[in-house]
Structures
1.
Amino acid sequence: MFESVIGHARVTEMLIREALRPANSYLFVGASSIGKATVATEFARVLLCPQSADHEEDCRSCRRIRTGNHPDLIEIGLEGRQSIGVEQARNIVQTATMMPVESETKVFLIPEAGMLTEQAANVLLKTLEEPTGSTIFLLVTESETDLPSTVNSRCRTIHMGRVPSDLIERHLLSEGVEPGRATALARVSGGRPGVAIGLITDTEIDEFRTNWLRLPGRLSERPGEAALLAAEVEAWVAPLAGRAVSGSDLTKDERQREERRTTAALMESGLEILATWYADAAAIQYGAPLRNTDLPLAELTAISPKRAVRNTELILEAIADLNANLRRNLLLTNLFTNLAG
Ligand SMILES: [Zn+2]
């Protein structure tokens, strides 16, 4: 069970117990590309399988889930629209009243539940509220605030965190990825298996990390130069994000949205990599173990440990501000100026 999921052991163990007596609706919440939809789909597989997926070899039901052909797993996507509107919601409500085709349960999976309009969410409320005994809703979103609280309060919320990089690395190794590359991918993905997998064949993974680790030596207090550097950083991130999502089977709108999310995710990973440089600069002078073992030591000791600690904090603050959707270019320019100052 849940064997296709990377990490999330606590969540999957809980869901195995949940499957014995499932709630009417679940809400999976967490950052992009960490595997929320994969976990939700696996949960659907366990719920729909006549043997609760407790078998060595896939049964017919499980096979149909994996190939996306199970009549009782109904996935509600955007289908080219900007949001999931009232009409789609009414269709869901109507389908929910019908008997399952093959299983004892019908599962509705909404991987972009944050895109439900408020009216659509209101239409769904009654169905979420009145358990029919044979219908289970699985909603997936990045933030609970994307959904009206009336919907949240009716769901059992499953919070999912980022995946430890050693687990991602181990998975990549098991997929035959060469060791050095697996390490680099795991580091760059920042705990998001989806990003690591999307970049498996990318040739610029090592360069991405090296570029971020070289930034400290290139910073300037002059805002003009910092702005140029900020633009350069954007130019490392955007094409990589584009390539990370290019292999997936998405419509144009979905791809753009995924690309935006992946850009934000990679920007965060990059800043975290930059923070490790300063953390190492402090660590080496305090005699603590280093995160990066391939950095020139002379550069690390050129900055005082006190400033290194301060800079690590500045970067972590910038990451928090990025997540609060402040303007990225301005934020990076500011950060780079402050790091040098
Ligand atoms: Zn099965």
2.
Amino acid sequence: MNVSEYQLSVSDIQLTGSVARLVLTCETPGDFLYKEGQYLNLVLPGGHKRAYSFASPCRADGTFELHVRLHEGGRFSEMLRKDLQRQYKLTAVGPFGDCLWHPPTHKDAPILMLATGTGIAPLKALLEAELPHCKARVWLYWGCREAADMYLRGYFESLSHRYSHFNFVPVLSRDGSDTQAACGHVQDAAARHHADLSRSHVYACGSPRMIEAAKALLTESHFLRPENFHVDAFEAAWEHGAFADAAPKGEVVELWVTVEGERKKQLLPGGQSLMLALSACGLMHGVCGGRQSCGTCRVVFQESGFRVLKPPSRSEQRLLNTLNNVGPYDRLACQMHVDSQLSGAEIVIPDNPVNRMKQHIA
Ligand SMILES: Cc1cc2nc3c(=O)[nH]c(=O)nc-3n(C[C@H](O)[C@H](O)[C@H](O)COP(=O)(O)OP(=O)(O)OC[C@H]3O[C@@H](n4cnc5c(N)ncnc54)[C@H](O)[C@@H]3O)c2cc1C
Ligand code: FES
């Protein structure tokens, strides 16, 4: 992933119920590369940022789609309702995220996709890119409250007619009268049809509550391997514990930090993640708040300091593997605690546009 800042112009807006579908064009299409399943951050006036998943595959002309649920009183939602017109210019930073396609290793094992609401966006991008080549059977379960909320139902039905290996199951949680749709929650509808997911990959996007329930159900009772569960949780920053849990406590740890070529001693209070401690000093901004999906908190250790650290978890290593220019002593600051293992360590914070914009980002 090569994180950059981009200027976008809005070329079209379509409103269906409480969902706005935006078509945007990047002003420098040649540089604008992302992988299906990733997201970007729109930087709103005043520096506030909002994450949105790409709803279409990456194209050479820099045009792409976003699906935005309009929330009452929401900052970007209100901006969309009132101000946003065609030709409107927006700034974005990205791409981020690791809910990427994993080629199936067993053609007989089904691939499951679970979405709630606008969580359909990244799955649509993945399906449009991968369905033409995929040999395995793909099942999409899309959950909404009522039939009227399912703004792309006709599109996915026609896709299931075009590709015989693609099955689309609409799931409604508050409308039992639609005989063409399953009733209840997406994870339960999927679990009813797939007893054995031991060789499957599952992609789940949208509500964090659905993602948590699906992971528990499918790994505990349907043999899904946790590393084959790929997620994009639409959790707002204010809902995410990592930002709230910033109260420092315990010992103060001294380490050396080089940023933009300047090396400085930093005294960081313990009891929090290294990402939060460095953010509090204005030295970095972890876009995803510690959910291990953005990579903007990457730091480079000196070899001697690196060797005394506890090794990275599998999920930290997996995200590091997807980042550009990663060296052997790189770690994610959001996955490390400020404690004695960091005492005297030397770290470099690599340059990236998010860190450059950190003073302006709320
Ligand atoms: C990785 C990722 C990808 C995402 N992709 C998408 C996507 O493709 N499509 C999509 O629609 N959304 C997506 N989201 C969610 C999106 O980023 C925004 O959170 C959402 O659109 C709301 O933005 P907003 O500015 O309109 O509302 P906000 O200003 O964030 O407010 C949202 C709602 O919460 C209320 N609220 C605000 N602050 C608080 C608070 N402190 N306590 C309680 N309530 C509060 C507001 O009144 C409003 O009703 C994604 C999120 C993540 C993390
Ligand atoms: S990976 Fe996003 S903050 Fe660390």
